[in-house]
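Subject: complex prediction, re-run

Hi both,

The earlier run crashed halfway through, so I resubmitted it with identical inputs.
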Amino acid sequence: MRQLTIRYPNGQIYHQGSSNLCKNHKPKNDQVVFGNRGMPLEDEINLSNLFYLQNDLAVIHKKPIPIQIVQVDYPKRSAAVIKEAYFKQASTTDYNGVYHGYYLDFEAKETQSQTSFPLNNFHDHQIKHLRACTKQGGICFTIIKFVSTQELFLLPAKILYNYWDQQSTGRKSIPKNVIAENGFTIKYGFQPLIPYLEKVDLLIKQSPEKRS
Amino acid sequence: MRQLTIRYPNGQIYHQGSSNLCKNHKPKNDQVVFGNRGMPLEDEINLSNLFYLQNDLAVIHKKPIPIQIVQVDYPKRSAAVIKEAYFKQASTTDYNGVYHGYYLDFEAKETQSQTSFPLNNFHDHQIKHLRACTKQGGICFTIIKFVSTQELFLLPAKILYNYWDQQSTGRKSIPKNVIAENGFTIKYGFQPLIPYLEKVDLLIKQSPEKRS
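This time it finished cleanly. Structure:
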């Protein structure tokens, strides 16, 4: 199979490698997965989730990209080949899973901006999904990476909701200082590469209990 | 776009309609979605999940089918077309989500068998995934449909684990009477079509609390 640069309809590059990487490049406890600073955030999160999974710390997966399949060939003695398919808009966020009995739901977003996080990184349906999960007692957030400075933050979804709702009358981005003050700074680690569950622990402490 | 009968590599029919159905055929509260007894279980569950979502009762989605994309065309002025792609094995179950603060994770399986549920309906990685989720305090189960009698059961994952582990020395299926005695019978309903969350409530009562 040839490997090409594949783009979403919006032009964003599709990182084919992510899930292959999970399958073929499982870091064991004694392997170094540190220093991949040029990696897309998605791959960094996937590696971190693999570490969490292998160490029984959490079960969090990236959802596959939704595809509308139109035509499939079934060649004899070889795998079925999808010959025509289209990208569909996802109705949820990219990541969800379970951690210490809590449902986690989040998006991971990179920005080239140096001073703020543009809200057009989100679609309306993603915010709607996060809100529905929050309402059900899920722990919802965004992991934001400022690429130019390699800074990482975990931003609680409620801050995102506030800015999202004020878009029509207010600004169209969340200032970095607001993210830093209201979110949690994540430092790149060793194992996992992005130790975001430490910050999820803090977020859980802030969240009201929703079990009935 | 043409609609063809699409099959998984194992020959099972891929129900293209499921997610379209969710998008284009949203039942409102006053619409009847009852009586679709010939529907695949997947579509029945998807409709039920849509009802739960629209009524703020739970947020549960079917995961997209994982696809390995090899070639994509970008025609001018029209949507990107995937020209070559392959089915990948999923590393998780089909359904997960959040309900009253609980993480739910399950598979939905149909069987033509009249007396037992064959364990070869499951892959090892799905059992492994369910076990990992159970360990993290998730509520894990299977919804089993006996097609010939249209009977539905919610089977707690722990029963599945027991039979799975005894496969090498014991039987390769779970007898229907074991499912009926250890699981919960689900009666087809009106709205939702499959009111499985009522049985999840009972399962939660049986499950030890895992939050830390």
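Helices of chain B lie at 17-24, 41-54, 124-135, 157-165, 176-182, 197-206.

- K.
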